[in-house]
Structure formats: C-alpha cells, structure tokens
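ok so i was messing around last nite and threw this chain in just to see what happens. nothing serious, just curious
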Amino acid sequence: MGTDRNSIEQAREANFTKLKTYLKENGTRLSRKEFAAVLFAINGMTIYNSRKKDAIGKASDKYGIPKSFIKKFIDSMGIKSKRARQAQKEFAIFHKIGIYKHRKKVEDET
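result:
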C-alpha cells in the first residue's frame, strides 16, 4: 500500500512541476484558486482516471472557477486523461488489426 501512495505522490509532484513549467515558459500567471483548480483537474484526469468533463466539473465546483477556463487551460497544455490515452491506444491497435485482416483478405483473393 505504501508503494501506491508513493506513486500517487510522485504523479502529483510531476503534474505540479509540469504546470509550473508550462506557466513559466508561457509567461502566464494564475491566481491561487485558478492554479489549484487546474492542478486538481489534471490530477483527477491523470491519476484518478476521471473523465475530463468530470474532473473539470469537480475542480470548478470545489474552487469556484469557470469550467470553460479550466478546460481551455488544460487543452492548451495538451493534457489527456488516462481514459483518453487508453482509448487512443486501443483504437490504434484495432486499426492495425483491421488493416492486417484487409491485407490478408486481398492476398488470399489473389
């Protein structure tokens, strides 16, 4: 159980660092509440497997920051949820399988 807690803390720290670096590189400043809301949503998406919409909604409710602000900021950072990354990976696998089956069918016909 300690290992899970450590990995979660490491992921939180990585998300915090990624957000700080993004802000610094882009010369962007956020209020304390905006920073906390964006980080909360990022953690929800990347650590706790929440859907993007759900993570943004929870962050908005908790910190009183508009959902549109949080979404726009996360989109500009290019952050994807675990679910979205997994779906993209599965699509790529199924796409490759489909191409393989099509090629095999064409070869068999000739």
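not much to say yet. The chain has a mean pLDDT of 85.
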